[in-house]
Each structure stands twice: as structure tokens, then as C-alpha cells.
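Changelog excerpt: complex records now keep ligands as SMILES alongside chain sequences, and the structure block spans every component. Example after the change:
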Amino acid sequence: MNLHVKLGKLKLKNPVTVASGTFGYAKEFEDLVSVKSLGAIITKTITVNPRLGNPPPRLAETASGMLNAIGLQNEGLDNFLKFKYPALKKIGTEVIVSISAQTKKDFIFLAQNLESAGVKAVEVNLSCPNISYAANNSKKNQQISRAKSFAQDAKATYDVVSALRKKTKLTLIVKLTPNVTDITEIALAAERAGADVLSLVNTFLGMAIDVETRLPKIANITGGLSGPAIKPLAVRMVYDVARAVKIPVIGVGGIMSAEDALEFMIAGARAISVGTASFVNPKAAIEIIEGLKLYCKENKIKDINKLVGKISL
Ligand SMILES: Cc1cc2nc3c(=O)[nH]c(=O)nc-3n(C[C@H](O)[C@H](O)[C@H](O)COP(=O)(O)O)c2cc1C
């Protein structure tokens, strides 16, 4: 049975990856899980300089999901290359480094330094909902303005991805936000700009309030919703995007089981990422690999790629 899938120049031993920000830098999980069995590890997003992230509380549980506003806490590029990457590359599976920046120049700086260090693929996080938050609290004007992420604008997406494409040979996986009216428009812009792969979705912008204190449950006021609550929304977006583009798509959003992963693949995802599920069960991604094998065996599927986009309509 063939479980290998291709994402740009990367060949994954199976389609199961762990989603950025939900699996640390993998070493944290090594005692619990056979991390090398994963198709790939997608690291927590790194930025050029270290970031402390947002003030706590940064997580809140919701019905069938979780809100987070971590704010891209990370140790920065230099510390990542010195202290995290050497151990990651010894694990024996593909390592995809998630990167974020607020300028094209910084995106290029990150990509070129990672490429020089031997990294083969980056996930370009154009979609974090939890940074650059700005509220206008004047009494007259209670309007809240939030900085847009690159992936909320087709032209901005095109500009960043094409700038990166000109400067690096890395496999470019572009991670999209669901917080848009038409995600296919953004996906097409990323593809035209030279993305090798698309990853969707990041979290949905949400909010929760404690009625006793009347305070937002998250200090940042808003946060990103993840977990089973978002799965049908994410499956729909993967379905739409996979039919619109020619490049492979990684499906992300509420995948808790092999059945969930299969739904995304049948909708058109070549690979999938497991996120919030790892908080509930650190072995979730590994169990999903086993479940995919079983499904292929029971359904006499010799090559998992044959399932991709094979929805019966
Ligand atoms: C606590 C937490 C931190 C996250 N950090 C990042 C991040 O640094 N970069 C990123 O691209 N996505 C980040 N995400 C989003 C996930 O990678 C994923 O896209 C999202 O959670 C949807 O998948 P899920 O429902 O399986 O969790 C984070 C999600 C959570 C829950």
C-alpha cells in the first residue's frame, strides 16, 4: 500500500502532518509519540526576532473547540537554528518550518537563512489572526480596527509570495486564512505568484465573554477558533480551493480522527494537518496514520493518492 504523497519537492512517507503551533518543536512529544512516523512536522511559526506573544489568558475552551491568541510567541530565527533545528532534523521525518513576518524583506531574510541551514520547505504563515491588534477605545467611536493579515488580500498575498519565489528555491507552502469572503481568490493569487502548495485553514476569528465578570475570556479580546467546531467550514474551503487550483492542498481544521482526515482528502486535500486534537490526545496524529492504513486495506486502495478529490457527486 502506498501512503507517500508529494508536496512540491517534498516526498512525505504519509499524508499526516502536525499543524503549526500545536506540536511545539516536536521534541516535547518524542517521549510520548513515535514522532518519526509522521509524514512531516510543521513547526511553531518563527519570526526574525523573538516574540513574547500576547498577555494571558491566551486560551479558552468553547463548545467543540478552542479559542487562542498566543500571538506568535517564539524564540526567533537565530535561537531556532541554534537550539531547535539540529534536533528536529535528526528525527527522521520531513521538517517544514513555519515563518511569519510583517514585511517582504523579513520573509525573504527568514527563507534565505533557513535554506542556507538545509531546510527544504517553509510554510508561509500569511494568516495569523492574533497579531497587530489595534482597538480604538474612544467613547464616541467604539469601532474596533484590526490589522489585516496578508492572506486577507489577494494582491498582498501575491506580492509576498512572488517576492519569496524570486529569492528562494524552497518548497513554498502558503497558509491561508478562512477569515475572507472568497478564499479561492486568495488561493489563486498565491498559486499565480509561485506557491508550490497551499495549506488551509488557519483559525477563524472568534470571541467569548465571561458573563460573571463581563470580561472577554481572552486578554486579546478576540482569538482564533480551532477544533471540531470548524471542521465542516474547513472541508468546504478545501473542496472549493482544490477544485480551483492545480497545486496540492494541505487540509487543516478540526481533524480528530482518521475519518475526519479522509473527509478532507476526499474533498481534495493531498495531505492533512492535525492541530487541536494533539492537545486532547498527543497520539492523535499517529492514530490517524494507523486509521488511514486500515481504511485503505479494507477498501482495497493501493495508493492513497487515488482518494484525493474523489468525491462521489
Ligand atoms: C494554540 C494554537 C497555536 C497556533 N499557532 C499557530 C502558529 O504559530 N502558526 C500557524 O500557522 N498556525 C497556528 N495555529 C493554527 C493551527 O496550525 C491550525 O491551522 C488551526 O488550529 C486549525 O486546525 P485544528 O482545528 O486542527 O487545530 C495555532 C493553533 C492553536 C490551537
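The pocket of flavin mononucleotide is lined by residues 19-22, 44-45, 66, 68, 70, 72, 98, 125, 128, 175, 202-203, 226-227, 230, 252-255, 274-277 (CB under 6 Å). The longest helix spans residues 284-298.
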